[in-house]
Amino acid sequence: MKILYQFLVKDILSYFLMSSGFFLFIFIMEKGLYLSKFLFKNIPISSFGYLLFLSLLPIIGLIIPMGFLMAVILSWARLVTSSERVAIESCGLSIRGLILVTLSFGLCLSIYTSFINQRIAPSSSFKFNLLYDHLMKKKPTLLIEEKAFVNLEKGDIYVERVDEENLYQIYLTEENSTIFAKRGRVVKEDDSLTLNLFDGVIYQQNKDLYHILRFSEHNLLLRKKEEGGVLEKKIYHYTGDELWQEAKRHKENPALLTEFHKREAISYVSLFFALVGIGI
Treating both helix axes as pointing N-terminal to C-terminal, what angle do 45-81 and 269-279 enclose, rounded to 10 degrees? Predict the structure, then answer.
């Protein structure tokens, strides 16, 4: 039986690595495409590579369950289609041991995934935001993409052309107003980013009144200065231990415990997928 167990583990492991590699390749392409704008704006290749690496770490917690599900289905399907399961049972051997091996494999992966989701993923996500914020402060035009609508704190912005410092043919929508400008520039002031617009028009609606304002210069705050100059941590940036401590301190906020248990639920999907894969 020991030989059978080793055979099954090797089989699942080989399919798991192939499936996980396939899913990882898809996510690398997707993230790489999103971050490729940095390469076209003279950002160092090392910074681009580090950003890509940090953006992929949180996804590992999703890739592992998906890869394991594929591995279990393929391994157990092969046992059936190649009549290996029939041969095992005809020798008087029980497949319960093989089921327990598969479940144990899933449990080990679940524990490892829990460690990633509770510790590594939140830290890497926060480091990604810090580096991304740092790059945008060094090169403010990274916020804006040519010929594409970009969502900002104030609304949506569309820019026809972007060079090293200037923006041209700007269209910006806010809650009750629309702004057109021939030219603009994103300016860093302390830790805030301001959009300076030149030679434009503001179309503003206030109840039943409609105003048209022409300007030679108009300033909009794109990003507020963070308190103490430090990027604020969001709930998904907290590690599992930090979430647990904050939940004890702020019992009136259920979102903290919800986030903690959500990560745990995703982590132990591999164990559930082991049962699903064996049943299929």
Answer: 30
